[in-house]
Amino acid sequence: MTDDRQSLGAAGERVAESFLRRLRYTIVARNYRTPSGEIDLIALDGPTVVFVEVKTRTGTDHGSPFDAVSRHKQRQMTRAAQRFLASRRLLERPARFDVVGIWWNDGEPRCELIRNAFDAC
Predict the structure, then answer these.
(1) How many CB atoms neighbour CB 24 within 10 A?
(2) Contact 8, 58 (CB under 8 A)
(3) How far apart are CA 16 and CA 20, in angstroms?
(4) Distance CA 79, CA 91 (A)
(5) What are the backbone angles phi and psi of residue 40, rounded to the nearest 5°?
(6) Residues 89-102 pLDDT 10s
(7) CA gap 43, 46 in Å, rounded
């Protein structure tokens, strides 16, 4: 990944974290990595553990940020989420997958949240 893309992704994750905090999510982990995949943010929304994928775009040339959450990425996130829940003995807690899309135009980010964006696979 190029430095510009990494910088954009990191900036997008910071914006998404602030956005989710305003929605009263409690952030419990950032960039959670496992051998099977990575999760950008892990949060609590009330009693629900929320695994959040953040996708940032500077324009619409490559489609919506939400289009970039492929079935493959969903499977990776599912495996990483299962590992997170098991390692913290939270398997009985409700959980879901959210996606935050960020469009960065004219220096101002615009955020959109899809709650329960996909089912575990």
Answers:
(1) 10
(2) yes
(3) 6
(4) 13
(5) -65, -55
(6) 999 999 999 999 99
(7) 9
Which tokens belong to 57? 């775009």
Q: pLDDT by residue (tens digit) across 58-109?
A: 866 666 777 778 999 999 999 999 999 999 999 999 999 999 999 887 778 9
CB neighbourhood size of 29 (10 A): 13
Question: And the tokens for 49?
Answer: 């553990």
**What token pair was written down for 24?**
């009263």
DSSP string, the chain: --HHHHHHHHHHHHHHHHHHHHTT-EEEEEEEEETTEEEEEEEEETTEEEEEEEEEESSSTT--GGGG--HHHHHHHHHHHHHHHHHTT-TTS-EEEEEEEEEEETTEEEEEEEEEEE---
Pairing mode, if any, of strands 95-105 and 48-57? parallel
pLDDT over 90 at 116, yes or no: yes
Can you give the pLDDT at residue 84? 97
**Average pLDDT of the chain?**
90
pLDDT of residue 60: 62
